[in-house]
Design goal:
heterodimer; A: 267 residues; alpha/beta; Rossmann fold; six-stranded mixed sheet; four-stranded antiparallel sheet; 10 strands; globular; B: 311 residues; ABC transporter involved in vitamin B12 uptake, BtuC
Chain lengths: 267, 311
């Protein structure tokens, strides 16, 4: 059976040939089985979000290929890959259209990957369905179906975005530090909701996070990235017994190694 | 002293014309609303596409084409102009405002070519024009038919647009204008919908050009100069004066569009008023620009002031 996601040796350099040249992805290889929930950690500029953006097709990669559920999407533009992907972003503003109502936003998501026709944008039956779905969130949003999403709090917007991502079952759910901009209490709630949605819909998911505890507590597999490469990949029982101190040690090992290299070069 | 020299009756006499002109330009303002507000795209194509619509309509009517069909053609050439701007932007990667300026400039030559010279007239006595200045001074029935027709036309137009922007396609345009990242993540082809919105917008502007040319009995290569400012003025006046009235209503979007048309009418009433105050008509464009500047600046300054107040 094909992998849910297969990344083969992708490379990406930003601002090539300029003084700001930055190698963001330096040969990333990854295979996800169906139902995998992978958490991704790593320092700033390690390539975590960049990997997710590469999968989503925000820009084309320089080299390598990306295969989602057996379909090679490497050459597809962002909007054509959308039918495979559910996405939640770091900034709660990014995932929803602020000037449109909650039901309109959900209807847009429910039609992900479909042709936009001259049929009515939100049908009555859909509205009832969305109401049910929103009730499950338990945020009181079911009574605010026609409110503009811009009026919602950051946490509410992330919750709605999560819901939107699952309306049309994606092959892969990409969570890009989606709780980083929220207060701790709301963040915990949104994380809990993410777990629930992933489990209920049997989704394959990738979650970038800065929080090592979260990375350990959630998902069945953990990846650490450094300088555009995957340097640590742990899953199953081994991951369950992982502690923050283990990750910190691993982290120091790689960044320390780099430090030593610098010393050598200077010396 | 100056006030005494003004004749209130002449102001009153100017009102019907101002209202009619406002309603016709309201069609154009709807087009500007679509690009400026829904798509968040400063589209200067309109200064050219308005005259293209006018020129096309006048030349067709002179060839004996039915004035209604001529309006359809005006709409179509407007759409074509919008498409050019859209493709310059999306297919060739030229910044939006610059794409629209390029189209606008080229339309000047195209408009001259359509007409063969800088202006062409049509006589209302010779052709059964859809709208005309002459109808305003006609008998009661003519007047009634004229105003009734124009108002009804505006209502129908607003409802068509209201329903269109409630369809999947219309919502995709709104999502594109509101949040490109979100739109792409939902599989919306933002480039296609940007071009589509520009076509609809400029179609309306072309239609307005066709109407206005019939109304004044001539098309002129310069008839669209500064049209964007008039359109913006209508949008902003409508929003500022009626914004609170529209918000939260069941069909808020339809009300907003009516507000934009009302904004265009108010704009022309104000213009008639300042002209009546003996402001030289040469200064009108400066006056319009200042009015639009003030209204555009208000939200920004208010924001700044309020934030300072809090700190």
């Amino acid at each position: 059976m094909a992998y849910a996601l297969e990344i083969k040796d992708i490379h990406k350099t930003f601002n090539k040939g300029t003084i700001n040249e930055k190698v963001a992805l330096d040969g990333v290889n990854l295979q996800l089985n169906e139902g995998d929930f992978v958490t991704i950690i790593g320092g700033n500029g390690a390539g975590k979000s960049t990997t997710l953006n590469a999968i989503a097709g925000v820009w084309p990669v320089d080299y390598g290929s990306i295969i989602i559920g057996g379909t090679d999407v490497t050459a597809l533009p962002e909007h054509k890959r959308a039918k495979f992907l559910g996405r939640v972003f770091q900034d709660p503003m990014t995932g929803t259209a602020a000037t449109m109502s909650i039901d309109e936003n959900m209807a847009l998501a429910a039609r992900r990957g479909k042709r936009r026709t001259l049929k009515w944008g939100v049908t009555k039956a859909e509205r009832e369905y969305y109401k049910e779905k929103l009730r499950e969130l338990d945020l009181g949003l079911e009574d605010r179906l026609t409110s503009k999403v811009g009026l919602l709090s950051g946490g509410q917007r992330q919750a709605v975005t999560l819901l939107m991502a699952s309306l049309q079952k994606p092959e892969l759910l990409l969570l890009d530090e989606h709780t980083a901009a929220l207060d701790p209490k709301t963040a915990a709630k949104v994380l809990e909701l993410s777990d629930k949605i992933i489990e209920e819909n049997h989704l394959t998911a990738m979650m970038v996070t800065h929080n090592m505890k979260d990375a350990i507590a959630h998902g069945n597999r953990l990846i650490m990235m450094h300088e555009g490469r995957v340097i640590y990949d742990v899953s199953g029982e081994e991951k369950k017994h992982l502690r923050v101190s283990d990750l910190l040690a691993k982290f120091e090992e790689v960044s320390g190694g780099e430090f030593a290299n610098d010393r050598m070069m200077l010396g | 002293m100056i006030l005494l020299s003004l004749n209130p009756m002449s102001l009153l006499r100017a009102m019907p014309g101002a209202c009619a002109q406002g309603l016709i330009w309201g069609v154009m303002a709807l087009g500007v609303y679509i690009t400026f507000r829904l798509l968040d795209f400063a589209d200067l194509t309109v200064d050219g596409s308005l005259a293209t619509g006018g020129a096309t309509a006048v030349m067709l009517i002179r060839m004996g084409v039915n004035p209604w069909i001529a309006l359809l053609a005006a709409f179509a050439v407007g759409m074509l102009a919008g498409m050019v701007t859209g493709l310059l932007h999306t297919a060739l990667g030229i910044p939006g405002i610059l794409s629209s300026i390029l189209t606008q400039i080229s339309l000047y030559s195209i408009n001259l070519n359509i007409m063969g010279k800088s202006n062409q007239a049509i006589n209302v006595d010779q052709y059964a024009l859809v709208v005309s200045l002459r109808y305003i001074s006609g008998d009661a029935l003519t007047k009634f038919k004229f105003y009734g027709g124009v108002v009804l036309g505006c209502i129908i137009l607003v409802y068509i647009l209201y329903f269109y922007f409630g369809t999947e396609q219309g919502q995709a345009i709104r999502a594109t204008g509101c949040n490109q990242s979100m739109a792409k993540a939902q599989g919306i082809n933002t480039k296609f919908h940007t071009v589509l919105a520009l076509m609809i917008s400029n179609g309306l502007v072309g239609l307005c050009g066709g109407l206005y040319a019939q109304y004044q009995g001539a098309a002129d290569v310069n008839m669209g100069r500064g049209a964007i400012v008039i359109g913006l003025a209508a949008v902003i006046i409508g929003e500022v004066l009626f914004g609170k009235l529209c918000a939260g209503r069941k069909m808020a979007f339809a009300f907003t569009m009516f507000a934009v048309i009302a904004g265009a009418v108010i704009y022309y009433v104000v213009i008639a008023f300042v002209l009546w105050l003996k402001m030289p008509s040469d200064d009108m464009k400066l006056f319009s620009a200042i009015v639009v500047t003030i209204f555009l600046a208000i939200p920004y300054l208010k924001d700044k002031y309020v934030k300072k107040g809090v700190a």
